[in-house]
Specification:
By secondary structure, this protein is an all-alpha fold. It contains 3 helices and no strands. It has helices at residues 2-11, 16-21, 32-47. Residues 1-51 are annotated as: Disordered.
Length: 51
């Protein structure tokens, strides 16, 4: 249930390049996609009590 809710939000997220252009994401050596995936993994860990 929670997983479905989060996956639905992920499916509607803006394009990472658009977020970089708008200044929401900062440009660094990692791609916007890599940063996003890392943030999602951390969020899953928090919700599962792992972090």
């Amino acid at each position: 249930m929670l997983e479905d809710k989060l996956n639905d939000k992920i499916s509607h997220r803006p394009d990472p390049e658009k977020l970089v252009k708008e200044g929401v994401l900062q440009n660094d050596p990692r791609t916007a996609e890599e940063k996003y995936e890392e943030a999602i993994e951390e969020e899953y860990a928090k919700r599962e009590g792992g972090a």
